[in-house]
Amino acid sequence: MVTLTINGKEVSVKEGTTILAAAKSMGMKIPTLCHSPDLKPWASCGLCVIKNVDPRTGRARMARACCTTVTPGMNIVTDDAELRKARRTVLELILSNHPQDCLKCSRNQNCELQKLACEFGLREIRFKEILKNQKTDDSYAEIVLDRNKCINCGRCVEVCQNVQNVHALEYNGRGDKTMIGPVAGVDMAHSPCIHCGQCAVHCPVGAITFNNPINDVFTKLADPSLTSVVSIAPAVRAAIGEEFGFAPGTLTTGKIYAALRALGFKYVFDTNFAADLTIMEEGNELIERIKKGGKLPMFTSCCPGWVDYCEKNYQDMLPHLSTAKSPQQMEGAMTKTYFADSIKVKPKNIFNVSVMPCTAKLFESTRDKNMKSSGVQDYDMVLTTRELAKLIREAGIDFANLPEEKADSIMGAYTGAGTIFGATGGVMEAALRTAYFVLTGKEMKPVDYKPARGLKDVKTAEVKINKDLKVRIAIVHQMGNVDAVVQQVRQELKEGKEPSWHFIEVMACRGGCVAGGGQPYGATDDIRKKRANALYKDDGKCKLRQSHKNPEIAKIYKDFLGKPLGEKSHHLLHTTYTKRDLYRD
Questions:
Q1: pTM score > 0.90 for this model?
Q2: pLDDT above 90 coverage of the chain, percent
Q3: N or C end of the chain: smaller count of CB under 10 Å?
Q4: Helical H runs in 395-467?
């Protein structure tokens, strides 16, 4: 422990703690813009300046609190007239290069720069306005880069390069000519971007946003020729409440169903149902590979950011990807085939919407011909959690006071295994519950598989199925952690060794879908844990907790699909992969 003084009060904190964190532990806020708890500090913005006063001479040296660690006997001042003046000047300089169109900005009332300007009471800017006047990069359908709003804090570059290992964004130029944008001078669509959206959720302003014509939803819902259907992903229920004042980790499943009906959707389904369906296909695929000597290890395929990354960076691993579609795409396929048949409506007359925590899901819905199971696009629109919240507010729906409702039967029932898909390790745990049953005829006990849970970068374990079979697993989240796992797999395959793992779960975003690019802003590890715990709580209260016990899953196989990995399920629920150039869409 290190003892120091902050604003006249003595405090003891762990060695290596930054002044920023030490002050926060005492309830003292030091303003920042470039700082993020997910990222290593790099002291870009200069807002967090503090004074380190020499107790012998009384002289004060300025330092940046985000990257300066505490030392014994430090005497720190975090706020005085000189510091406030310095911070105001920094803010004014930033604002002099920033468009003043807050009312039209997607981050209006949820912008860190706007909030700081309000807190400092800025009404006038002393410096001449000099805007970048750069063309907006909207080459992607979903992710939009507006350099004019960029404040060069660097958070997007740091998360893209050092957390995700994607390297789609970089710094260009020097000094006041510095510009952030896609690498090699290309546009976003031709960069290595994998659509994960972590740049957007880490951007403190509206420089990187998610663009979607969400108001088209109201137009489509009002069209009498269309039958509207919507489904929500597992992680949405654990996060959307934050948009309406609920504490992180509050489950609002029933309120979401009610809100969707209030918006005008005729049928409300739950993608947890398709998560159960995914387990039936993916779990049986794993068992078949183990029994028949197929490509091992097998990687999960439900994360479109990971699939895109693999197609661009690990093309030799594509045969090791599960061919099972993601829950979203299985839900879409079943909606426009099985469900369309049951209500006697042509697939083209179904307006099918998915609500996802992920910005890569819109890309996934159009990525290849396999996403047109009925001959037309399986999903007509994919909304993020944040976008659904916008629609709810625009429609004047009082989300907090909505009564709890249930999803529609036929494709709404789910087990606990389906709901934990939204957390890192959840797909693996759900798959193990069913794989164990298929291989032994007995249920796995205990149902909760704790080694799959938590935020450790890479989790590994061995599951004893019977005396002759032990399934070795690995779970990795946050794209920057994947490379070490893949390199080990490559080396073992090259040397002809038995793989260290049979089954590997990969999720592109830290914590899994609970902190996807489309979730409410401001996720930290504490918030990630709370959202994940909400899903585990939902799992724990479910009467049925194994995918193979879902009665609607059994019915869909009996009445429509036949059997897992059968001819029909292979056609509708499985996909293929394409080698993609790193600098091409």
A1: yes
A2: 91
A3: N
A4: 416-419, 426-440
